[in-house]
Write a structure and sequence with these properties.
This protein is an alpha+beta fold.
Length: 197
Amino acid sequence: MKILSINVATVGNLFVTEEGEAPRRVPTAFDKKPVAASVRVTKHGLLGDEQADLTANGGVNKAVYAYPFEHYAFWSTQRLAALKRDVPLLPGAMGENLTISGLLEDEVWVGDQLQIGDAVFQVTEPRVPCFKFNVRMGFSHASKAMLQSGATGFFLRVLKEGHITAGDAITLIAGPRKLTIQQINEQGQNGLQQDLF
């Protein structure tokens, strides 16, 4: 298990066009780009990274977003089918801060801790995508595909501040092991998602 890429962005604009309306600007920090150097981790996320809507992202329970690289093949197939052309997906394309390898939603539990570099994170919840994900992916059912596939990734709380670097190993420290991210995603599909905190 390791970090393949660390990705950050500042708030910019996403242009959304709805049928019969003029394009409108929506603030977002979705356009994450890889960082080559070591990155400082604080209680509120990665240094150099911002969130536009703190009700949906950010805050201490959603300070960092991790996404398994293993799902990128699924998204390439989805985009090829929807857009009828192959559009490469680079690390950060899902809006994630950490593109990770070797740790999927069925292998990580709410409350598990991840030691990366000298920082420690805690798994809090899966991502619930919004319309911005549809716009960034280029097709209107991207959010639905993410939820139905369970390829959501997960948010992390920062328990110990420190520094991380792409290539760092991830050490998993088991938490209370009540619900996996996959189980929460499945409950959400059935309308049974419970409050975790």
